[in-house]
Amino acid sequence: MLITIKRIKGLGVFGDFTAPADLPAFARYNIIYGENGSGKTTLSRLFAALEAGAHADYADLEYMIESQSGALSAGQRYGRKVRTFNADYVEANIGQFHGPLRHILIIGEANKTLAEEAAGERATYDERSRAIAAAERAAEKLEAEKGKVFSAIAKTIGEATSGTNLRSYRKPNAEADFARARDLAPLLDAQLKAHRATVHQEQLECVGMPVLPLQPGDPARPFADVAAALRVEIVALLARTAQAGALRRLVEEPMIARWVEEGVTLHRAHNSDHCEFCAQPLPEARMAVLAEHFGVEDQRLKADIERTARNTRNLLDGVAALVFPAKTSLYAELRADYETAVEMAERCRTALVDQIDAAAAGLDEKLLNRATAYARDIAIDPKPLTAALATLAAVIERHNRKTEGFEREKAEARTQLQRHYLSTIVDQVRDLNAQIAVQKTIGTKLTDGAVDLPDPRSLQALKDSFEAKQAKVSSEHAGGAALTDKLKIFLGRTDLRFEAGAEGYLVQRRGKPAKRLSEGEKTA
């Protein structure tokens, strides 16, 4: 038992301490008190160093202490055990109060094998947990890389379908559309160009169809029927003649015949019996011969020719006046087809105009030579122009359908562009998904266990096993209850409890982690 401290030198605040004469000797129980920094902890550390005879922090320490076993000085081991309870003891044996406190474990020889098995299983569990975490990180990295692929393609699609950076098509849209899409394939260059043009187009007006002239007074009669009937009529007129006693001179000279016919008509209209050209009386016999030459049937033939000639000229004017809409009135992607169709229609129209013009010239010739019959083949074939106009109308119809369903056309163009650009990442996404699946398979295998693993059990089974074995060689659960009872006796209340955790005891206050322990509670 220690009796008294005589001298201390080189120990913190006790730089050079000599006990006064009236310092009482130690009793069985002693109280040492003083202000903060006065040396209470420093003195307790001196007591803790007596058993070893040296202080780790003060190599030049000197002291002289009397005990029942004799005087003690620096460098001299104290033969009795000295137990010092201070902050250093708490730190060394219990730990910090802000985390779990250390378990009290009791392991005997009989449980050594069990403890080693638990340690091995815990090592396997930890190694497998790290591998699972690595697989999860790898999968997350691949998912992030896939996300970048979808973000990039969403930007491309947004710009292609809106033409502006202020777009509403984002990564989630691309991912959702990709997941729903089936049979993705890239568009042909012409299709891609057409769809890109459509989404940037403004809506145009419908375009009227170019129509061939119809028979006057019979708008329901098709142009082809009118042209065919006119051809037949012209051929018949050229073959007709109404001359019974024709004058050779007038037959051979159509221009003179026309001049004489007009003269006869004028003299008859004015009831004149004198020639207006030579001022001589008109011979009755000559007038009778001319009347026979220009008879009633001849006049009927003349009237028929003139009527048919007018109809022919009207048809010719109608075909010549056929108007084709400007190509700029159609959507851009249709203009090439439209221009080709217009060129064909123009060629067919020119050919038809030439045919009708030739037929009209034949009628003019017949008018001057009514006494002569012609067996001539008149070619008026509207079929090529009709077919060319049908091709032209088909292009215009495409334009008009697009105008009538313009928003639908735009929506379809956007959909096709989306599918086109999504098709460009199919291989990349498929490869990333395969790599992600590999990492997830690794994680699942390590989590659920497998026969080809060194330990085929699942992660949870390993955890349950080593925790059960640890429980068999550990008094932590019983220790927690025993410590709680001791704490109750020491403090006189039950609000603080020791609960065993995975890494040590947890100090609970009314079911929650205890914080800001008082000094008395820490001591307890």
UniProtKB/TrEMBL annotation:
<dbReference type="InterPro" id="IPR027417">
    <property type="entry name" value="P-loop_NTPase"/>
</dbReference>
<protein>
    <recommendedName>
        <fullName>Protein CR006 P-loop domain-containing protein</fullName>
    </recommendedName>
</protein>
<dbReference type="InterPro" id="IPR026866">
    <property type="entry name" value="CR006_AAA"/>
</dbReference>
<feature type="domain" description="Protein CR006 P-loop">
    <location>
        <begin position="14"/>
        <end position="524"/>
    </location>
</feature>
<dbReference type="Pfam" id="PF13166">
    <property type="entry name" value="AAA_13"/>
</dbReference>
